[in-house]
Amino acid sequence: MEGNWDTVIKPKEKLLSVDFKELWHYRDLCLLFVKRNIVVQYKQTILGPLWYLIQPLLTVVMYMVVFGGIAGISTDGVPQPLFYLGGICMWQYFADCLNSTGNTFVTNANIFGKVYFPRLVMPIADVISNLLRFSIQFSLFVAVYVVYAIVGTVACPNIYALLTPVLIVLIAGLALGFGILISSMTTKYRDLQILFTFIVQLWMYATPIVYPLSTVVGKTVAGFDLYTIMSLNPVTPVIETFKFALLGAGEFIGWGWLAYSAIFMIVLLSLGIVVFNKVQKSFMDTV
Amino acid sequence: MATAIEFENISKQYRLGLVSTRTLSHDLNRWWTVNVRGKEDPYLRIGETNDRSVKGSSDYVWALKDIDFKVEQGDVVGIIGRNGAGKSTLLKLLSRVTAPTTGQIRARGRIGSLLEVGTGFHPEMTGRENIYMNGAILGMTRAEVSRKLDEIVDFSGCERYLDTPVKRYSSGMMVRLGFAVAAHLDPEILVVDEVLAVGDAEFQKKAIGKMKDVSQGEGRTVLFVSHNMASIKNLCQRGIVLNQGSVIYDGGVNDAVDFYTNSAFAESGNLYFEDLSQAPGNDSIRIRSISIEASDGKAIDMNSDIEVSLQFMNYKVGSMVDATFELRTVEDVIVFHQGKIISPNRDSVQGEYRVSFTIPAHLLNDGRYMMRIWFGENCRYLLWGTLEHAFEIAHAAEPGQQDNGHRPGVLHYGFDFKSELIR
Questions:
Q1: CB atoms within 10 A of CB B168
Q2: A19 to chain B nearest CA, in Å?
Q3: How would you classify the pairing of strands B246-252 and B238-243?
């Protein structure tokens, strides 16, 4: 009799007891959440998914005026629209994932309070559904790219372009890891949520989106090499590789830094999952 | 028969109030004491039992304390108790919405929980999409839902609107659809909160019928929480009575319901609070006293005029304050819900008011009743049914009449019956 229980509900699980089998069982739910997120977003809008295109286009124009025109920041010889669009695509995906996963517990408190399913399904679904938006914006990027290629003012993508899927996985993993870590903490102390929104905004400027990393080469801040400090931001190597691979901007940042990003992502994601798993058990009491 | 669910020493502690500035320090203190100094959690000891009417001195309460029982496979168990007795907490633990503070629950088979009908319904999605969504949230795979789609749609009776967004549905239709999905979930253990309180009578009958089928025909285990003693008796074989987080009775359903009505409706005696800060109420209203007694000062029976008197301190100045009395029977039927506006011209002052009225003799039948007190301000609730006062009307024959014993019914009014031979 003892030992053949299907469900055991205990106050505290061991720290590393993440039930991936159960998570897999709920894959249909994950897909449904993805579908819901996509369908619901532009219901009762006239332009619908066209907004996915309008937003980056307007942003590009803005960046061209402010950073390209007024500030005169170099784009490493790449045409400005292409340079900004590439960066915006990647960053927007990262920021979207961060913002939606970072609020998992708070926005879904209603469902979570009524029924059990592995809570991790929710942020994973967020990351996947944001991929749709990313792919539309990426297509826009490709379209603009093709136009420039025909006119002949841009370098062809090099062999590193094959890394693009890996880069996207890195971005998604980093965002998911950060997001669930933050959402685990915001259930109790809401001020983190405000801080977090703010940090995401500032983070963009710490990442080479509107400028190439090459502009900081040789500069120092308080005796530290700025290039190294910037590259310690795990998103930087990913974005730099993306720009180098597709636009030929600057130089390849090196496998070392890319490996750093990958390891950072794996550690962060593992930590995030462990913390999230611990919080999900009793967050309803504190949310 | 095999055990389906086993509760072992289950306790659940909650922290009252908002997450205040003290939380972080409490958390740090707890972490320090438990993990660094290796001592017992300091906040686990100061919890008190959960009695809503007495203002506790600590911020921590035990919603459940040392719950220990087993449920056999195929049992249908009704969980009874007053508001705040811990019923919902128990179901929440079982549905894994939150984790217990101590103890363990072990279960055999899939647990399907219905704490709410239609969880995860999105107003913008169609009925069909929501069926899949809700099914998946409750743990069904897509294939399972597809297989049962026809049955679900049929049961809900929403076929015509299946491809309409549910925001166009009436609330009744939403409930039907939600229950239909849940009813076809086929878990080995079904946990049901008072979801049947919504929906029309026909649907409630259908829902109870379905739950009966599930438990009797298919041998599943059901845990059912309700305030409705009639449906508890109708559906369950076993009853568990909770009071202030502990099991106070566990046995056959009829005995359990009797036990509950006897204990919950035990005469509370007249209440008087000398110290207003300890009295039930909130910042707007504090109840000083309530008394329900026969006008002749003897025990209340069917021949007594029953005088109800309520005294309270009002802190709401310049508004329309009302005191409302709600009389309920043990079956939770509301006999009346009426009251008096003490300041109809929005001219309430800070001070003690008294509201009293008389329930005439020969109106109510014998039995136990519960008077619940509500306060309102400008048609909004100011104090939400906090004070409950139980009393019993003893059986008595009308003077000069033959005693026919107890008759069913809420009322026993002295109608002016006439009889004549007409042919």
A1: 11
A2: 14
A3: antiparallel
A96 within 8 A of A133, measured Cβ to Cβ: yes
B338 SS3 class: strand
Taking an 8 Å cut-off on Cβ atoms, the answer to whether B99 and A282 are in contact is: yes
pTM: 0.72
Distance CA B394, CA B412 (A): 12
Q: Note whether B108 contacts A12, CB cutoff 8 Å.
A: no
What ipTM was reported for this prediction? 0.77
Other CB atoms closer than 10 Å to residue B242's CB: what's the count? 24
Are B315 and B284 contacting, i.e. CB atoms less than 8 angstroms apart? yes
Query: Please, what sign has the CA dihedral across residues B15, B20, B26, B27?
Result: positive
Q: Which two tokens stand for residue B17?
A: 């109030």
* CB contact at 8 A, A107 and A193: no
Contacts with B218 (C-beta within 8 Å, 6 or more apart), sequence order: B186
For B141, which residue in chain A has the nearest alpha carbon?
A: A28
Question: Please, are residues B221 and B74 in contact by the beta-carbon 8 Å criterion?
Answer: yes
A-B C-beta contacts closer than 8 Å: 110
Residues of B in contact with A31 (CB under 8 A): 142
Question: Which site among B6, B28, B98 would you substitute to test the A interface, given the most A Cβ atoms closer than 10 Å to its Cβ?
Answer: B98
Q: Which residues of A touch B137 (CB under 8 A)?
A: 29, 111, 115, 117
- Please give the order of strands across the beta sheet that includes B334-341: B334-341, B321-329, B367-377, B380-393
CB contact under 8 A, B105 and A9: yes
- pLDDT per residue rounded down to tens, chain B (423 residues): 678 888 888 888 876 654 443 455 666 666 666 666 666 555 554 444 544 444 444 567 788 888 888 888 888 899 988 777 888 888 888 888 888 888 888 888 888 877 777 777 888 888 888 898 888 888 888 888 899 899 889 888 888 888 888 888 887 788 888 888 887 877 788 888 876 656 667 777 777 787 777 777 777 888 888 877 777 888 888 999 888 888 888 888 888 888 887 776 665 567 788 888 777 888 888 888 888 888 887 788 888 899 999 999 988 888 888 898 999 887 778 899 998 888 888 888 899 999 999 999 889 988 888 888 888 887 677 777 667 788 888 888 877 777 777 788 888 888 888 999 998
At A221-241, the pLDDT tens digits run 777 777 888 888 898 889 888
Under a CB-based contact definition with an 8 Å cutoff, are residues A158 and A203 in contact? Answer: no
With an 8 Å Cβ cutoff, are A28 and B99 in contact?
no
CA distance A110 to chain B (A): 8
**Mutating which of A114, A188, A278 best tests the B interface, going by the most B Cβ atoms within 10 A?**
A114
Please indicate whether, in this complex, the C-beta atoms of B125 and A40 are within 8 angstroms of each other. yes
Contact between residue B58 and residue B220 where contact means Cβ atoms under 8 Å apart: no
Q: In sequence order, what E strands does chain A have?
A: 7-9, 220-221, 224-225
Closest CA to A90 of A248, A268, A240: A240
Cα(A63)–Cα(A61) distance, integer angstroms: 6
Task: Please count the residues of chain A.
Answer: 287
Query: And the tokens for A68?
Result: 């390209």
List B251's β-bridge partners, or say none: B239
Radius of gyration of chain B (CA): 25
Contact B142 A9 (CB under 8 A): no
Query: CB–CB of B98 and A117 under 8 A?
Result: no
